[in-house]
Amino acid sequence: MNKKRLPYLSLLIITATGLALLPFAIVKRSFKDWIIVYLVSAIGNYFADFYLVSKGYLKYPEKLFQRYKIHLPFDFILYPLMVLYYNQWTLNSGPFGICLKIFPFALPQVLVETFAARYTKLITWKKGWTWYHSFISIVLKMVICRVMIGFIRIINKGKISAN
Fold it and tell me: Is 0.85 surpassed by the pTM of this model?
C-alpha cells in the first residue's frame, strides 16, 4: 500500500465506522435527548475547532474534505458520537460517576490525536498546543454537554423524553 494514502484511508475507515454506529446511538429510548446531545456536541465542537484552527493552534494538513480548514468528520460524526455514548452511559450516574466515566472516552481520543500529531499528517499542533490542551478541551466540552442535558432533564422534571 502507498504510504501517502494510509492516513487518507484510515480517515475513510474511521468516518465510515462512525456513520455506521450513529443510527444505533440515536435510535434509542429518549430519542429527543440524544438528538439534542448530538447537535449540541457537533455545533460546539465545530465552533471550538474553527476557533483553534483560525488562531493557528491546530492544522489539518491531510483531511477528507480539503476545501475546509477544520476536520469535518471529527467535528460532525466522531466526536458527537463519543459524547452521545458518554451521555447514555452516564444517564443515571451521580456526579462522581459522571466524572469517572469521562476517562474511557477522553483518554483514547487524546491518545489517537497525540499519535496522529506525532506520526502522521492528519493533525499539526502549533503555538504550544499539546496533548493536555486537547485532553482539557475534550473533557470540558463533554462535561458542558452533559450539564446541558442534565438541565434539560431538570426542566422536564427529571423525565427522559420517550419520543
Answer: no
